[in-house]
Specification:
With about 130 residues, the protein is an alpha+beta fold. The chain has one domain: Kinase associated domain 1, KA1 (TATA-Binding Protein). It has three helices and seven strands. Strands 2-6-5-4-3 form a five-stranded antiparallel beta sheet, covered by helices on one side. Strands 1-7 form a two-stranded antiparallel ribbon. Helix 2 packs across helix 3.
């Protein structure tokens, strides 16, 4: 009986762990326009800014080809850098608040947030590529 209780307690403690490795997105391809041409850097930038806004991120252009975005939910926050070109974009962890970042691991919600951000950016880019 004691062994069963120990096993149940151990499993419940493992289930309470919420840290996961930080997920960065590297070199996500920007789709070509229907004409076969590349999108302009300005079109890629606008797509990233629009997608960020729709997902609740506050984004700003730091320099041509680099956007920084932040999200705050309750007392948690994350900051990412989004380097981009006419060919690709990436999303890299910059820093966070109250997400228990430690040695490359972070609260699992961070990965959900950046995954959703990347999906939205892809959708915006695809939509814009169809308009060119």
């Amino acid at each position: 009986m004691r062994l069963i209780l120990t096993a149940i307690l151990s499993l419940s403690l493992l289930g309470a762990c919420t840290s996961k490795p930080v997920h960065n997105f590297d070199d996500q391809l920007v789709p070509l326009a229907e004409s076969g041409s590349r999108m302009s850097l300005a079109s890629v930038e606008h797509s990233i800014l629009d997608a960020s806004r729709k997902r609740g991120w506050i984004a700003r252009v730091v320099e041509p080809g680099l956007i920084e975005a932040q999200i705050s939910i309750r007392n948690h926050g994350a900051n990412v850098q989004i380097p981009f070109s006419a060919d690709s974009y990436s999303i890299h962890y910059k820093d966070s608040e109250n997400l228990d970042f430690d040695d490359g691991s972070i609260h699992r919600n961070y990965n959900k947030w950046v995954n959703n951000l990347s999906k939205s950016i892809r959708q915006e880019l695809l939509q814009k590529s169809r308009q060119l």
